[in-house]
Amino acid sequence: MATATRLSPRWAAVLATALQLAAFAAVLLFVADSLAVSSTSSRILSRDVTAGWPQPESSVLAPSEQAFDVKRALGDLERITRTPHSLNDPRSIGVRDYLRATIADIIAGSEAEFSDPVVNGTVAEFESKRWLVYWEDSSLVVRVPGTGNHTEALLVQAHYDAVPMSHGAYDDGVGVVVCLELLRSLVRYPVRHPVLINIDWGEESGLFGAILFARFHQWASDVRAYINLEAGGVGGRAMVFRASHPALLTAYKQAVQRPCASLVGNNAMRLGIVKSDTDYSIYTTRYGIPGLDLAFTDRRSLYHTSRDNAQQATAESVLSMGAATLSTARKIADSTGTLPSLPRSPRLPSATKPLSGPASDDVVKDAVFYDVLSRLMVVRSYSAEMWLNIATGLAGIAA
Question: 72-103 pLDDT, tens per residue?
């Protein structure tokens, strides 16, 4: 009869200590990586960002045609951020007209549709918190049809208004010029599913542009997922700091070579630790649409100040958001399964019949996500994370 081998008390103590140290090191690694958003750390992590970030991956694109044109993007950024352009600043009209003309030039001769606010703008009256808002929208919305017979659409979102005194280079000029580059790419090389690009107006004043699109726009009912381009700082790398579905996180994970993501933003925004907000709260929290918040978080001391200008923008930083957005958007919209697997949120008004009620549990699904030193990305459901924590705890007790 075989006898069970038992560890001596000494070796059992050594093993238990080693497990505890390993768990502590893993926690430190996660926290350090999640909070590594200073300029110094971002330069270290992205020193080869130009070579490291992938360009849109599609067999129909030649290598020279895949590139995100960062030089052109920086030129557009300089043009739209020469002056402050807040909501009530007349100079915002110049920014709008430049974007209108640029969009019209990009889509000329294509099948893309442009919802021009000057030609067919939306005027709406709605309640926001305790206020009754009368809003004349100046958002710029473009629909690029897909190559297949699909109605499920991906929305890519940014805003062109800035806070008073700010030139709005990172918040949200970079997001705007990335949308322009994405539009150029999609018009020339469309994907299977339609892609909507909404460069909205009124985000800084109460997220009004997103509210009007979700509630009143004729194309809103087609949206199954979105990517929101934002900034909570000035410079560094663009990171996924909020997300509401593992399928979208997996698409991002597969689309980029050097991921930059942290669950800390999800929890910090939810707990009110970060005293700012983005259109993510409109699309996911209010209307139940799953999405990704891709944002800059470096140098928050320059955020919403006059120093948020084009002189702060670097090619590497702009490229980090541009390449990640192009790759991820094409990955999601060119997939045969991602968008069709996401049901329409019942909170979205229909083009024919308004709907109300809570969002389906199948639409928004939170997940645990983070990158490890930009070399790999972990995406797990909350249930998987719970069982992993239980198993780790039991293993520690047994040791």
Answer: 999 999 999 999 999 889 999 999 999 999 99
Residues 274, 195: contact at Cβ < 8 Å?
A: no
Q: Which are the catalytic amino acids?
A: 203
Give the distance from CA 93 to its chain's centroid.
26
Residue 325 clears pLDDT 90, i.e. is over it: yes
pLDDT tens digit sequence for 53-74: 334 444 344 333 356 899 999 9
**DSSP for 170-203?**
IIIIHHHHHHHHHHHHHHHS--SS-EEEEEES-S
181-186 LR contacts (CB < 8 Å, sep 24+):
181/68, 181/69, 181/72, 181/73, 181/322, 181/326, 182/156, 182/325, 182/326, 182/329, 183/103, 183/106, 183/107, 183/112, 183/142, 183/144, 184/69, 184/106, 185/56, 185/326, 185/330, 186/112, 186/144
Radius of gyration of the chain (CA): 23
Burial of 124 (0-12, 13-18, 19+ CB in 10 A): middle
The residue ranges of DSSP E strands in 94-152, in sequence order, are: 113-115, 123-128, 131-136, 140-144
Question: pLDDT category, 42, cuts 50, 70, 90?
Answer: very low
pLDDT at 93 (0 to 100): 93
The Cα 174–Cα 378 span in angstroms is: 27
What does the alpha-carbon distance between residue 327 and residue 314 come to, in Å, rounded to a whole number?
Answer: 20
Are 54 and 320 in contact by the 8 Å Cβ rule? The answer is no
Looking up tokens 């895949």 gives 66
Q: Label residue 316 by pLDDT band (50, 70, 90).
A: very high
CA distance 296 to 158: 13
Q: Quick check: 172 pLDDT over 60?
A: yes
Query: Is the pTM higher than 0.85?
Result: no
Burial of 125 (0-12, 13-18, 19+ CB in 10 A): exposed
CA distance 213 to 221: 10
